[in-house]
Amino acid sequence: MKAIGYNSYGGIDKLQILEVESPKPKRHEVAVKVSAISINPVDLKKMRGGFKPITSIKKFPIITACDFSGEIVEIGNDVGAFKVGDKVFGMQDILFNGSAAEKITISQKYISLAPNNFGLSDSAAIPQVGNTSLLALRNIASLRKGHKLLINGASGGVGTFALQMAKIYEADITAVTSDRNIEWIKNEFDIENIIDYTKTDITDTSDKYDIIFDANGNLSFPKISNSLSTNGIYVTTKFNIYNNIDTAKQFFKRKKSRTVLSGRTSTSNLDMFRMWMEDGKLKPVIEKTYSFDQYHEAYEHLSSGRAKGKLLIKIN
Question: Can you list the domains of the chain with their CATH numbers?
Fold first, then answer.
């Protein structure tokens, strides 16, 4: 079968269409005929060897991507929650598995039934960015109604999901984006407080926030900490040496800095996203859908950092 992946670490030029063996599900797994995948910046980091100290045991070729949607075509003997023919969406383990293949196998713990009010391919846009936002805002920052929340990188994949999730939790939201996306965010998500980072230095402001979610991962705690309230928390998607070394030092401080790492999701999280979508509280934000053979173009656009929402690649 065909898959999109690479045989050595490097840039996007290493990506190619691979011929790989069609997988068979283990006892607790399902086999899914993949309809579509979405791509994420973490794919690029993995491709360049950014997780090599952890993933060095993984042999090449490596299949790219983690998000997917599709139809179950086979189930293992111990699978009870799903059946052949179910339309599902989910997320492979980012470090050790990939989703960009005609067929994949995955544990029943990491999939959910696809929402019934969107196209099957659309639901591939949700798992990784949804899980990242949920871990950052609910699990780490304990987002509550009325919290003053600043989202940096509000027009990207994680940012557009975080905006919608924050509205569900009734937070007081301020979005940070460039001037070209201001009207789009205002109209698409009904957000009034928007900062244009090309004109305003968000690290130099008198405004205070209970939570700063750095979805872009291009800020730093030392620079942004003055914008936090007394007990505020800064959550970033980028692992950095400051967060790693100084987490212990921050234990007794009121202002906190944390990194969100979303390596895998769960059926319960995916079920929540599906319910939000079916209730009209959440929608996939998809800028463009590419064909299977346009994978290079899709990843080039992703690497530009200018994508609005998510980019999909159709597989079958």
Answer: 2-126+285-314 (3.90.180.10), 129-259 (3.40.50.720)
- Cβ neighbours of 179 (radius 10 Å): 11
How far apart are alpha carbons 275 and 309 in whole angstroms? 20
Is residue 12 within 8 A of residue 299, CB to CB? The reply is yes
Which residues, including other chains, have CB under 8 Å from residue 123's CB and lie 6 or more apart? 69, 89, 114, 115, 274, 277, 284
| Partners of 72 in beta bridges | 32
Residues near 73 by Cβ (< 8 Å), separated by ≥ 6? 31, 32, 33, 84, 103
Dist. CA 144–CA 161, nearest whole Å: 17
Q: What string of pLDDT tens digits covers the 316 residues of the chain?
A: 999 999 999 999 999 999 999 999 999 999 999 999 999 999 999 999 998 888 776 789 999 999 999 999 999 999 999 999 999 999 999 999 999 999 999 999 999 999 999 999 999 999 999 999 999 999 999 999 999 999 999 999 999 999 999 999 999 999 999 999 999 999 999 999 999 999 999 888 789 999 999 999 999 999 899 999 999 999 999 865 444 444 445 444 568 999 998 878 999 999 999 999 999 999 999 999 999 999 999 999 999 999 999 999 999 9
**Stated pTM of the model:** 0.93
The answer to whether the beta carbons of residues 91 and 127 sit under 8 Å apart is yes
